[in-house]
Design goal:
Belongs to the prokaryotic/mitochondrial release factor family. This is Ribosome-associated protein. Residues 98-134 are annotated as: Disordered. One of its GO terms (biological process) is rescue of stalled ribosome. This protein has five helices and three strands; from the N terminus they run αβαβαβαα. 48% of the residues lie in helices and 13% in strands. The protein is elongated. It has a domain at 3-95: 2-Layer Sandwich (Double Stranded RNA Binding Domain). By secondary structure, it is an alpha+beta fold.
C-alpha cells in the first residue's frame, strides 16, 4: 500500500451538512464526502485490492467505490483531515492478515487435574443421595 499514490487518488466533495444549524448550515458546505475507486487504484497491489473488496464489501458500491462521510466539525478542512485519517485506518484494518492458529493439546497434568475435579464433584453429588436401605 503506497499512501502517497493513494492520497492523490482520493476524491473529495464538499456538501451541505444535515441537521440543525440555522443560517450557518444553510450557506456553508462543511460536510466532506470521500470516494476512492478500489479497482482503479495504482497504490494497491492486486492481492490488496482483493482483500479490501472481501473485507469491506458491505461498504463498497456496485462499481467498487468506497465512500466515507464526515460532518463532525464546522470546518471543512478539519472534516477533510478526519475523513482521510478514518479512511487510512479502515484500509489498514482491512489489509491486516490474521495470525494463523497453531493447534495445541492440553498438558497431561491439566487433563489429570480436570478428571480429578470431575471425580470429586461426582462423589460430592453421590454422597448427597439418600442411602440405600435394602
Amino acid at each position: 500500500m503506497d499512501q502517497g499514490i493513494i492520497i492523490k487518488e482520493l476524491q473529495f466533495k464538499a456538501v451541505r451538512s444535515s441537521g440543525p444549524g440555522g443560517q450557518h448550515a444553510n450557506k456553508v458546505s462543511s460536510k466532506i464526502e470521500l470516494s476512492f475507486d478500489v479497482d482503479a487504484s495504482l497504490g494497491l497491489s492486486p492481492e490488496e485490492k482483493q482483500r479490501i473488496c472481501l473485507k469491506l464489501r458491505s461498504r463498497l458500491t456496485a462499481e467498487k467505490i468506497l465512500k466515507l462521510n464526515c460532518e463532525e466539525s464546522r470546518s471543512q478542512h478539519k472534516n477533510k483531515e478526519l475523513v482521510t485519517k478514518r479512511f487510512f485506518l479502515l484500509l489498514k484494518k482491512a489489509l491486516e492478515v490474521p495470525k494463523k492458529r497453531k493447534p495445541t493439546k492440553p498438558s497431561k497434568s491439566s487433563v489429570e487435574q480436570r478428571l480429578k475435579s470431575k471425580r470429586k464433584q461426582s462423589n460430592k453429588k453421590i454422597n448427597r443421595k439418600r442411602p440405600d436401605l435394602d
